[in-house]
Amino acid sequence: MQEFCKSAGVAFTRRRPYRKNDQAWVEQKNGAVIRRVVGYRRFEGLPAAAALARLYSALRLFVNFFQPSFKLAEKVRDAAKVHKRYHPPATPYQRLLADKRVSDAVRHRIEAINSTLDPVGLLREIRSAQQQLVEIADCMVVGDAAAPHAPTLEQFLSGLRTAWQGGEVRPTTRPKEKTKRGRRRPDPLVTVTADLRRWFEAEPWRTSRERLERLQGKQPNACPEKLLRTLQRRAREWRREKAHQLVFGAAAPAGLPGQIPLQCVT
Fold it and tell me: Using CA atoms, how far apart are residues 89 and 92, in angstroms rounded to an integer?
């Protein structure tokens, strides 16, 4: 960076030692723009770099031309109270045109760029790039990553009316899905599950203690007392399935034991 500034004739300066707030004008955009759009996932490899470049190419145009912001005009302290006054909200593009120091050549160039931009198309490109970044980070892709299927403009516009109902719409702000932990040891009742289920279907009013005693009568050494709690949980799942079948007339979907999901009956 220093060599580039020298070759371009740009004065290269650094902040004062132990004064990190000197860079606040630049660092404030890390949270307001970068982290808000990119999120906090870890991105590695060339596919992630290409997706970030695609995201930034659309993001810089959207932020500079279509995203207004407040700028502090003055701040007055009255004892312990601080009074702040802000300029009217405007986009960086509008502030640049309002500055009298800008040359006519620069004005014509940025006006030409603004006339070719579509905010809806830029926003759709940003959402598509965010979705690709999420897939790369969550799947830990090593090779080239295929770009996700971008929705058509009609599909994107039709979802804008109801997008607010789902909360935050940026894909990068959604938490990473966690895989459900499975069984960590072999099922101790795998050899007698069929018999237990048949006994439950024939006599559902029997307790798990009675079924365990019946198993111990048939296999004294294979069914210790510590299996009572496992048998109780198994019976609770079977009762849940039966209750769901009586109410809704269908098998209960996979879910947490002891919970009957709510459904609409028409």
Answer: 10
